[in-house]
Amino acid sequence: MPVATTHHYYIDRERIAIVIRFTVNALEEDNYDIVSDELLELVSWIASNAPIPVVVELSEVCRIDSLGLAMLQAFKDSIQDSGGDVFFRALHPSVLMA
Hints:
The protein has 98 residues and is of the alpha/beta class.
């Protein structure tokens, strides 16, 4: 059962990690503003809950551009700055090539 849901991802708990599962098929300029705003709120929530591993599942994301990559990098950097770790899993082959 999801812990929280937005229009672009939902959050679950798996053992000791927070899992973010994206529900959009692309992380690109078209949805950058809204997704990045949602992730910024999520960073604040995670940082306030003590350092915890975060798993980002990207199995639904088939397309990603440079803005999408920058958004994920900024998210990872912010979580790591607060003492947490970020792991990416289930990447679509086309995302791996980005």
